[in-house]
Amino acid sequence: MIKFFLMVNKQGQTRLSKYYEHVEINKRTLLETEVIRSCLSRSNEQCSFIEFKDFKLIYRQYAALFIVVGVNDTENEMAIYEFIHNFVEVLDEYFSRVSELDVSFFKAMSQVFLSTWQSTG
Questions:
Q1: CA of 46: how far to CAs of 38, 75, 93, 94, 111, in Å?
Q2: Which residues form the AP complex mu/sigma subunit domain (predicted)?
Q3: DSSP-assigned states of every residue in 75-90
Q4: pLDDT values of the chain reduced to their tens digit, one per residue, 121 residues
Q5: What global pTM score does this model have?
Q6: Alpha carbon of 100 to those of 19, 62, 64, 65, 86: distances in Å?
Q7: pLDDT tens sequence across 64-85
Q8: What's the chain's average pLDDT?
Q9: Strand (E) positions, the chain?
Q10: Quick check: helix, strand or coil at residue 26?
């Protein structure tokens, strides 16, 4: 099960976040900081799957954007990795080469795509 979905830039600023389990606002900030730090500190040669606390992080980098998905231990990592790729392809098709600015300025549209993609598969 997916716990959260984050899109962040290389500076560690969150551009889009969606939580599928309740997390208090002050704990979200701390969680995002730790998650982002652990993903940004890894090199390109390292695996994109990270064991983190009581869940797994699956992330993928596209230019200046990192997409990070937190899942429970029973979730298939490769399926989530492919989900990330397909989500970016949808954004690319809609925005014709999606960028960090597109996600920032059209956050509502990005969330609609994510919610629709998540709920309907």
A1: 12, 20, 29, 31, 29
A2: 1-105
A3: S-HHHHHHHHHHHHHH
A4: 889 999 998 898 988 888 989 999 999 999 999 999 999 898 888 999 999 988 999 999 888 889 999 999 999 999 999 988 988 888 888 777 776 766 766 666 666 667 776 666 5
A5: 0.84
A6: 20, 10, 7, 7, 17
A7: 889 999 999 999 999 999 988 9
A8: 85
A9: 2-9, 14-19, 49-52, 55-62, 65-71
A10: helix
Q: Which two tokens stand for residue 25?
A: 């606002």
User: 69 pairs with which residues across the strands?
Assistant: 5, 58
> Sheet containing 49-52: which strands, arranged edge to edge?
14-19, 2-9, 65-71, 55-62, 49-52
Q: Which two tokens stand for residue 58?
A: 């699956």
In Å, what is the CA distance from 54 to each residue of 49, 57, 69, 77, 107? Answer: 14, 10, 14, 15, 29
Q: Is 63 left (phi over 0), alpha (psi -120 to 50) or beta?
A: left
- Cβ atoms of 42 and 64 closer than 8 Å: no
